[in-house]
Protein backbone atom coordinates (compact mmCIF):
# COMPACT_ATOMS: atom_id res chain seq x y z
CA UNK A 1 0.00 0.00 0.00
CA UNK A 2 1.37 3.40 -1.05
CA UNK A 3 1.82 5.96 1.74
CA UNK A 4 0.08 9.23 0.79
CA UNK A 5 1.52 12.14 2.76
CA UNK A 6 -1.31 14.42 1.71
CA UNK A 7 -3.70 12.34 3.77
CA UNK A 8 -1.95 13.59 6.90
CA UNK A 9 -3.38 17.05 6.30
CA UNK A 10 -6.78 15.68 7.21
CA UNK A 11 -5.73 14.82 10.76
CA UNK A 12 -7.24 18.00 12.24
CA UNK A 13 -10.64 17.22 10.69
CA UNK A 14 -10.85 13.64 11.87
CA UNK A 15 -13.37 12.46 14.43
CA UNK A 16 -11.82 10.44 17.28
CA UNK A 17 -15.06 8.48 17.52
CA UNK A 18 -14.59 7.28 13.95
CA UNK A 19 -11.08 5.87 14.30
CA UNK A 20 -11.95 2.88 12.17
CA UNK A 21 -12.57 5.12 9.18
CA UNK A 22 -9.32 7.08 9.45
CA UNK A 23 -6.93 6.88 6.49
CA UNK A 24 -4.12 4.38 6.73
CA UNK A 25 -1.52 7.16 6.77
CA UNK A 26 -3.10 8.82 9.80
CA UNK A 27 -3.45 5.51 11.64
CA UNK A 28 0.24 4.77 10.99
CA UNK A 29 1.33 8.18 12.29
CA UNK A 30 -0.83 7.90 15.41
CA UNK A 31 0.44 4.36 16.03
CA UNK A 32 4.01 5.61 15.67
CA UNK A 33 3.39 8.37 18.24
CA UNK A 34 1.76 5.89 20.61
CA UNK A 35 4.74 3.53 20.32
CA UNK A 36 7.27 6.36 20.85
CA UNK A 37 5.43 7.82 23.85
CA UNK A 38 4.92 4.33 25.22
CA UNK A 39 8.64 3.62 25.01
CA UNK A 40 9.57 6.96 26.57
CA UNK A 41 6.99 6.53 29.31
CA UNK A 42 8.16 3.00 30.00
CA UNK A 43 11.77 4.17 30.22
CA UNK A 44 11.05 7.01 32.67
CA UNK A 45 8.48 5.23 34.80
CA UNK A 46 9.76 1.66 34.73
CA UNK A 47 13.43 1.52 33.77
CA UNK A 48 15.11 4.77 34.82
CA UNK A 49 15.02 4.06 38.55
CA UNK A 50 16.22 0.50 38.03
CA UNK A 51 19.32 1.35 35.95
CA UNK A 52 21.53 2.08 39.02
CA UNK A 53 20.46 -1.27 40.49
CA UNK A 54 21.44 -2.94 37.22
CA UNK A 55 24.82 -1.20 37.25
CA UNK A 56 25.47 -2.35 40.82
CA UNK A 57 24.51 -5.89 39.87
CA UNK A 58 26.83 -5.82 36.86
CA UNK A 59 29.74 -4.58 39.01
CA UNK A 60 29.00 -7.27 41.57
CA UNK A 61 28.95 -9.87 38.82
CA UNK A 62 32.38 -8.69 37.63
CA UNK A 63 33.76 -8.86 41.18
CA UNK A 64 32.34 -12.34 41.68
CA UNK A 65 33.87 -13.49 38.40
CA UNK A 66 37.30 -12.18 39.44
CA UNK A 67 36.95 -13.83 42.87
CA UNK A 68 35.95 -17.09 41.22
CA UNK A 69 38.90 -16.94 38.83
CA UNK A 70 41.29 -16.32 41.74
CA UNK A 71 39.88 -19.21 43.76
CA UNK A 72 39.90 -21.43 40.68
CA UNK A 73 43.61 -20.75 40.12
CA UNK A 74 44.30 -21.55 43.78
CA UNK A 75 42.26 -24.74 43.56
CA UNK A 76 44.08 -25.85 40.41
CA UNK A 77 47.47 -25.25 42.06
CA UNK A 78 46.44 -26.42 45.54
CA UNK A 79 48.82 -29.37 45.62
CA UNK A 80 51.74 -27.11 44.65
CA UNK A 81 50.76 -24.61 47.36
CA UNK A 82 50.55 -27.39 49.94
CA UNK A 83 54.00 -28.67 48.97
CA UNK A 84 55.39 -25.14 49.18
CA UNK A 85 53.79 -24.63 52.61
CA UNK A 86 55.25 -27.91 53.86
CA UNK A 87 58.68 -26.90 52.58
CA UNK A 88 58.43 -23.47 54.23
CA UNK A 89 57.37 -25.03 57.54
CA UNK A 90 60.31 -27.42 57.34
CA UNK A 91 62.73 -24.56 56.57
CA UNK A 92 61.28 -22.52 59.43
CA UNK A 93 61.69 -25.43 61.84
CA UNK A 94 65.31 -25.88 60.74
CA UNK A 95 65.97 -22.18 61.29
CA UNK A 96 64.42 -22.36 64.77
CA UNK A 97 66.71 -25.27 65.61
CA UNK A 98 69.70 -23.13 64.58
CA UNK A 99 68.80 -20.54 67.21
CA UNK A 100 69.99 -21.28 70.73
CA UNK A 101 67.34 -21.61 73.38
CA UNK A 102 67.66 -19.98 76.79
CA UNK A 103 69.20 -23.17 78.19
CA UNK A 104 71.84 -23.36 75.45
CA UNK A 105 73.18 -19.80 75.44
CA UNK A 106 75.75 -20.32 78.26
CA UNK A 107 77.31 -23.23 76.39
CA UNK A 108 77.60 -21.10 73.29
CA UNK A 109 80.35 -19.04 74.95
CA UNK A 110 82.28 -22.24 75.53
CA UNK A 111 81.93 -23.10 71.83
CA UNK A 112 83.18 -19.65 70.80
CA UNK A 113 86.12 -19.89 73.22
CA UNK A 114 87.02 -23.33 71.88
CA UNK A 115 86.87 -22.09 68.27
CA UNK A 116 89.03 -19.08 69.13
CA UNK A 117 91.71 -21.00 70.99
CA UNK A 118 91.75 -23.64 68.24
CA UNK A 119 92.46 -20.83 65.78
CA UNK A 120 95.41 -19.69 67.91
CA UNK A 121 93.77 -16.66 69.51
CA UNK A 122 94.03 -15.49 73.10
CA UNK A 123 90.87 -14.17 74.74
CA UNK A 124 91.07 -11.13 76.99
CA UNK A 125 87.36 -10.35 77.06
CA UNK A 126 84.23 -12.38 76.33
CA UNK A 127 81.01 -11.01 77.83
CA UNK A 128 77.32 -11.09 77.11
CA UNK A 129 75.77 -7.67 76.50
CA UNK A 130 72.18 -6.59 77.10
CA UNK A 131 69.62 -8.69 75.23
CA UNK A 132 67.72 -6.84 72.47
CA UNK A 133 64.14 -8.14 72.04
CA UNK A 134 62.77 -8.34 68.50
CA UNK A 135 59.37 -9.37 67.16
CA UNK A 136 60.01 -13.11 66.78
CA UNK A 137 63.40 -13.49 68.46
CA UNK A 138 65.87 -11.82 70.80
CA UNK A 139 69.28 -10.57 69.74
CA UNK A 140 72.15 -11.52 72.08
CA UNK A 141 75.30 -9.43 71.52
CA UNK A 142 78.64 -10.74 72.75
CA UNK A 143 81.58 -8.38 73.33
CA UNK A 144 84.92 -9.98 72.45
CA UNK A 145 88.54 -8.89 72.62
CA UNK A 146 91.12 -11.34 71.32
CA UNK A 147 94.81 -11.31 70.39
CA UNK A 148 96.54 -13.06 67.54
CA UNK A 149 97.55 -12.72 63.88
CA UNK A 150 95.61 -11.96 60.69
CA UNK A 151 95.46 -15.59 59.68
CA UNK A 152 94.24 -16.52 63.16
CA UNK A 153 91.43 -13.95 62.85
CA UNK A 154 90.45 -15.30 59.44
CA UNK A 155 90.33 -18.88 60.70
CA UNK A 156 88.32 -17.76 63.73
CA UNK A 157 85.71 -15.97 61.60
CA UNK A 158 85.44 -19.00 59.30
CA UNK A 159 84.94 -21.45 62.16
CA UNK A 160 82.42 -19.15 63.86
CA UNK A 161 80.34 -19.32 60.67
CA UNK A 162 80.52 -23.11 60.83
CA UNK A 163 79.01 -23.42 64.30
CA UNK A 164 75.71 -25.33 64.45
CA UNK A 165 74.09 -22.27 66.03
CA UNK A 166 73.70 -18.98 64.20
CA UNK A 167 76.45 -16.54 65.21
CA UNK A 168 77.35 -13.42 63.24
CA UNK A 169 80.28 -11.02 63.77
CA UNK A 170 80.13 -7.23 63.48
CA UNK A 171 82.11 -4.04 64.10
CA UNK A 172 85.67 -5.30 63.60
CA UNK A 173 88.40 -3.13 65.08
CA UNK A 174 92.02 -4.28 64.66
CA UNK A 175 94.92 -2.50 66.37
CA UNK A 176 98.63 -3.25 66.73
CA UNK A 177 99.93 -4.01 70.22
CA UNK A 178 103.61 -4.89 70.61
CA UNK A 179 104.24 -7.88 68.36
CA UNK A 180 100.64 -8.98 68.05
CA UNK A 181 97.25 -7.71 66.87
CA UNK A 182 94.25 -6.95 69.03
CA UNK A 183 90.81 -7.61 67.60
CA UNK A 184 87.75 -6.04 69.17
CA UNK A 185 84.57 -7.43 67.67
CA UNK A 186 80.93 -7.82 68.54
CA UNK A 187 79.38 -11.19 67.87
CA UNK A 188 75.62 -11.69 67.81
CA UNK A 189 73.52 -14.75 68.26
CA UNK A 190 69.77 -14.96 68.25
CA UNK A 191 67.52 -16.64 70.77
CA UNK A 192 63.99 -17.74 69.99
CA UNK A 193 61.12 -16.04 71.78
CA UNK A 194 59.29 -18.06 74.43
CA UNK A 195 56.43 -18.95 72.08
CA UNK A 196 58.72 -19.95 69.22
CA UNK A 197 60.96 -21.84 71.64
CA UNK A 198 58.00 -23.88 72.83
CA UNK A 199 57.02 -24.63 69.22
CA UNK A 200 60.54 -25.74 68.37
CA UNK A 201 60.65 -28.08 71.37
CA UNK A 202 57.30 -29.63 70.43
CA UNK A 203 58.50 -30.24 66.87
CA UNK A 204 61.69 -31.95 68.05
CA UNK A 205 59.83 -34.30 70.37
Sum up the structure in keywords.
205 residues, alpha+beta, five-stranded antiparallel sheet, 6 helices, 52% helix
Overview of the molecule:
Helices cover 52% and strands 22% of the residues. With 205 residues, the chain is α+β, with helices and mostly antiparallel strands. Strands 1, 2, 3, 4 and 5 form a five-stranded antiparallel beta sheet that branches. Strand 4 and strand 5 form a beta hairpin. Helix 4 packs antiparallel against helix 5. The longest helix has 26 residues, at 51-76. It is rod-shaped, with a radius of gyration of 44 Å. It starts with 23 loop residues before the first helix and ends with a helix.
| Average predicted confidence as pLDDT | 76
Give unreliable regions as ranges: 195-205
Distance from N terminus to C terminus (CA atoms, Å) equals: 99 Å
Class by alpha and beta content: alpha+beta
- Amount of beta strand: 15-25%
Residues in helices, as a percent range: 40-55%
Number of strands: 5
Number of helices: 6
What string, H for helix and E for strand, traces the elements in order?
A: HHHHEEEHEEH
Shape: rod-shaped
Task: Give the radius of gyration.
Answer: 44 Å
Largest sheet: 5 strands, antiparallel
Could you provide a short overview of the structure?
The chain is α+β, with helices and mostly antiparallel strands and 205 residues long.
